[in-house]
Amino acid sequence: MPEGPSIVILKDLIKELHLGKPEVLEVNGNAKNFDKDRLLHEKIADFKSWGKHFLICFKDFTVRIHFMLFGTYLINERKKTRLTLGLVFKKDELNFYTCKVDLLEGNVKEHYNWENDIMADEWNSKSAIKKLKEIPEALVCDVLLDQQIFSGVGNIIKNEVLYRIRVHPLTKIKNLTPAKLKALVTEARNYSFDFLKWKKENTLSKHWEVYSQKECPRKHSIEKKELGKTHRQTYYCEKCQKLYHKT
């Protein structure tokens, strides 16, 4: 599943094209939960990202693309996989595969709060801390995947952040010290921008310290279990990452 930084890369790639504010000349694909003809001859106002969502903004509505687990895209290329949505312009085309596509009416700002977006300039760390304190029984491995708190954080970032701050994934929010709670929020954003940098360099996996690893940098064995309410695969080091209890 693409994480927030990967969607930012897509947004930047498209904006680097000589698209300007292009008119949609052709719409293709098997997306069926809205009238694709509505996009015809409409001009794109902007491309945005919010967490794991890629947003194609028009004057009165927005097309939201969620890549789910296996979604992909191609710019000015096509492949044999069934097309979910394809947009053809005068000089370029955008093709999206194996993804979920929805149409949002009205201004996109009515649907999203960018203070939750870990990659956004509007990101609000104080708001994130406040929301975390409201769910004291939640596990840190779950809250990092909560898109209403850390929009854009996915499983890779979750695992790497918890190792970076040396916190066991089964620690409850209420048991974190104030310093560790702040570190959780701070490093979620810091690692996301590191992810972005390494992804652009095509070196992301070389920097993984626990994700898909057998040993941590200190040569301790890595545990691999499905943890928390999300049951997502979690990689962690029992020796490096402390399980905080109520004191």
From TrEMBL:
<dbReference type="Pfam" id="PF06831">
    <property type="entry name" value="H2TH"/>
</dbReference>
<dbReference type="GO" id="GO:0003684">
    <property type="term" value="F:damaged DNA binding"/>
</dbReference>
<keyword id="KW-0234">DNA repair</keyword>
<protein>
    <submittedName>
        <fullName>Endonuclease</fullName>
    </submittedName>
</protein>
<feature type="domain" description="Formamidopyrimidine-DNA glycosylase catalytic">
    <location>
        <begin position="2"/>
        <end position="100"/>
    </location>
</feature>
<dbReference type="GO" id="GO:0008534">
    <property type="term" value="F:oxidized purine nucleobase lesion DNA N-glycosylase activity"/>
</dbReference>
<keyword id="KW-0456">Lyase</keyword>
<dbReference type="InterPro" id="IPR012319">
    <property type="entry name" value="FPG_cat"/>
</dbReference>
<dbReference type="InterPro" id="IPR015886">
    <property type="entry name" value="H2TH_FPG"/>
</dbReference>
<keyword id="KW-0255">Endonuclease</keyword>
<dbReference type="GO" id="GO:0016829">
    <property type="term" value="F:lyase activity"/>
</dbReference>
<keyword id="KW-0378">Hydrolase</keyword>
<keyword id="KW-0511">Multifunctional enzyme</keyword>
<feature type="domain" description="Formamidopyrimidine-DNA glycosylase H2TH DNA-binding">
    <location>
        <begin position="114"/>
        <end position="197"/>
    </location>
</feature>
<comment type="similarity">
    <text>Belongs to the FPG family.</text>
</comment>
<keyword id="KW-0238">DNA-binding</keyword>
<dbReference type="GO" id="GO:0006284">
    <property type="term" value="P:base-excision repair"/>
</dbReference>
<dbReference type="InterPro" id="IPR010979">
    <property type="entry name" value="Ribosomal_uS13-like_H2TH"/>
</dbReference>
<keyword id="KW-0326">Glycosidase</keyword>
<dbReference type="GO" id="GO:0003906">
    <property type="term" value="F:DNA-(apurinic or apyrimidinic site) endonuclease activity"/>
</dbReference>
<dbReference type="GO" id="GO:0008270">
    <property type="term" value="F:zinc ion binding"/>
</dbReference>
<keyword id="KW-0227">DNA damage</keyword>
<dbReference type="InterPro" id="IPR035937">
    <property type="entry name" value="FPG_N"/>
</dbReference>
<keyword id="KW-0540">Nuclease</keyword>
